[in-house]
């Protein structure tokens, strides 16, 4: 790699190099595999690579391009996926050693779509174990398989979760694209804390099969990228439909500003700057009020525990290979293993083992309360507008174990519970750590939200890359 070339590659830039013949897909894949090897030990962002298959896929892409049969704008572009998504050749452990001996033999539907579009799957990323649904005192970014994922802006700081490795991999330029998953905040929160774009699409627009579940009522996969344009291109592949965001006219556009309570002046200044830029561009902004952490949170948790209690064992029963398949077996595995409970416990597993069944009166009451409360909170955040902006996160906190984390800003739940789209983008640094701005919308408003986000991104300007991790361009070999 060239140490003198200091321009990091977005997926669009990499695609242009491929189209111009300045680099081959094989060279591009090797470039990122080398970066994974170089920075992997310090960051723990990548659990596994599938080098041979990736290089074969890259060679196939070069052959297609050479014969004029490119599959589209992402043909030949490297990508990583979260390690709770099944792909042949990768472990799909959800971070748990319980699944290490039963690697999937087939691809999840969304992985089928990635391969069909010519993307080069390099490997899988670390995550908060079981998508951060094992303990209420968990440490985000830690898994028994991958260890502690570390923030590339300050490796003593947390990455948030659960799509920790996917966010870090994009931030540290280990791949131009990654896929994360979210139940509530697991794309937008690590995206904001690691200074990348994270898009949680409308629930149901990306196929959910072949993903280790928490609850299908809220689980979705989505893009984690350097730019909104890259997120849009990847979402088109993941959703299997053309996405054509229109240039967003900001002049006269009504946008709500959801200003969470108890912000430090430095963090609030990030949101105030975004609002000022929108006003200067002609937007009509208005303040909205919604609870940072909604009164429906307890009901959401209770509903998720009942749904998790049913859906995880059903998934494990259908997954081939040798692994625990029931709550008693999972709990017994954790207690017999010398790593699983070394940092924090698994009391959510214990709750799931005894939870009211999904479909019971208690579960349905909790789900109804969560859905209703989240809908009210989203309406409050939007304040009568189609879109709102708010903060995604406070600066990353120090890594610590065995203590409930304080995330500072929690604005993901209204969109997560209602299945509505939300997107985070880098908006500034506070004490050298990224703070993101989230754009919130209503169900089915994905294209409009992406268009607006691209316009806001242009106003905010380019984010600052992590120190010592600016990617060089791939060299010709």
What's the main sheet like?
A: 11 strands, mixed
What percent of residues are in strands?
A: 5-15%
Query: If you average the pLDDT, what whole number results?
Result: 94
Molecular shape: globular
Number of helices: 15
Oligomeric form of this entry? Answer: single chain
Terminal residue distance: 10 Å
- Strand/helix succession: HHEHEHEHEEHEHEEHEHEHHHHEHEEH
Low-pLDDT regions? 1-7
Reading side by side through the largest sheet, how are the strands ordered?
1-3-2-6-8-7-12-13-11-9-10
Count of strand segments? 13
Query: Share of helix among residues?
Result: 25-40%
- Structural class, judged by helices and strands? alpha/beta
**Cα radius of gyration in angstroms:** 21 Å
What topology emerges from the helices and strands here?
Blueprint: H1 11-20, H2 25-43, E1 46-49, H3 51-66, E2 78-82, H4 109-116, E3 120-125, H5 129-132, E4 142-143, E5 147-148, H6 164-171, E6 177-182, H7 188-194, E7 197-200, E8 220-225, H8 228-239, E9 254-258, H9 265-280, E10 284-288, H10 297-318, H11 327-336, H12 347-353, H13 361-382, E11 387-391, H14 413-418, E12 422-430, E13 433-440, H15 446-460
Parallel strand pairs: 2-3, 2-6, 9-10, 9-11
Antiparallel strand pairs: 1-3, 4-5, 6-8, 7-8, 7-12, 11-13, 12-13
Would you give an account of this structure?
β9 (254-258), α9 and β10 (284-288) form a beta-alpha-beta unit. An eleven-stranded mixed sheet has the order 1-3-2-6-8-7-12-13-11-9-10. The chain has a two-stranded antiparallel sheet with strand order 4-5. 38% of the residues lie in helices and 14% in strands. The chain is of the alpha/beta class and 477 residues long. α11 (327-336) packs antiparallel against α12 (347-353). The termini are close together. The protein contains 15 helices and 13 strands.
């Amino acid at each position: 790699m060239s140490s003198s070339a200091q321009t990091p590659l977005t997926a669009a830039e990499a695609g242009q190099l491929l189209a111009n013949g300045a680099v081959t897909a094989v060279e591009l894949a090797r470039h990122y595999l080398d970066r994974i090897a170089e920075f992997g030990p310090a960051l723990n962002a990548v659990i596994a690579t599938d080098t041979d298959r990736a290089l074969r896929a890259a060679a196939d892409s070069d052959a297609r391009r050479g014969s004029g049969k490119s599959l589209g704008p992402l043909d030949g572009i490297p990508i990583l996926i979260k390690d709770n998504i099944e792909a042949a050749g990768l472990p799909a452990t959800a971070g748990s050693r319980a699944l290490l001996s039963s690697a999937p033999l087939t691809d999840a539907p969304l992985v089928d779509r990635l391969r069909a579009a010519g993307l080069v799957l390099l490997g899988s990323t670390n995550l908060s174990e079981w998508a951060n649904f094992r303990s209420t005192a968990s440490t985000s970014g830690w898994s028994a398989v991958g260890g502690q994922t570390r923030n590339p802006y300050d490796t003593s700081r947390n990455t948030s979760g659960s799509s920790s490795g996917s966010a870090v991999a994009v931030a540290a330029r280990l791949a131009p694209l990654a896929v994360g998953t979210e139940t509530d905040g697991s794309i937008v929160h690590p995206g904001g804390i690691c200074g990348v774009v994270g898009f949680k699409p409308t629930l149901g627009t990306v196929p959910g099969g072949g993903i280790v579940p928490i609850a299908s009522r809220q689980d979705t996969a989505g893009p984690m990228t350097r730019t909104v344009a890259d997120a849009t291109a990847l979402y088109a592949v993941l959703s299997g439909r053309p996405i054509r965001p229109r240039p967003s006219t900001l002049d006269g556009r009504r946008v709500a500003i959801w200003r969470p309570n108890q912000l430090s002046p430095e963090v609030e200044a990030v949101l105030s700057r975004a609002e000022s830029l929108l006003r200067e561009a002609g937007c009509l902004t208005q303040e909205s009020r919604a609870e940072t952490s909604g009164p429906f949170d307890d009901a959401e948790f209770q509903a998720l525990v009942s749904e998790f209690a049913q859906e995880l064992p059903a998934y494990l029963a259908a997954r081939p290979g040798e692994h625990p398949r029931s709550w008693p077996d999972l709990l017994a595995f954790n207690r017999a293993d010398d790593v699983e409970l070394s940092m924090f416990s698994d009391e959510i597993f214990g709750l799931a083992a005894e939870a009211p069944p999904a479909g019971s009166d208690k579960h349905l009451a909790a789900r109804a309360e969560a859905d209703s409360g989240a809908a009210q909170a989203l309406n409050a955040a939007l304040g009568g507008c189609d879109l709102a902006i708010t903060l995604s996160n406070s600066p990353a906190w120090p890594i610590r174990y065995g203590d409930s984390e304080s995330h500072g800003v929690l604005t993901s739940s209204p969109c997560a519970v209602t299945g509505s789209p939300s997107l985070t983008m880098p908006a500034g640094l506070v004490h050298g750590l990224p703070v993101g701005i989230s754009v919130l919308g209503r169900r089915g408003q994905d294209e409009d939200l992406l268009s607006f986000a691209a316009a806001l991104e242009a106003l905010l300007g380019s984010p600052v890359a992590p120190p010592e991790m600016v990617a060089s361009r791939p060299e010709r070999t």
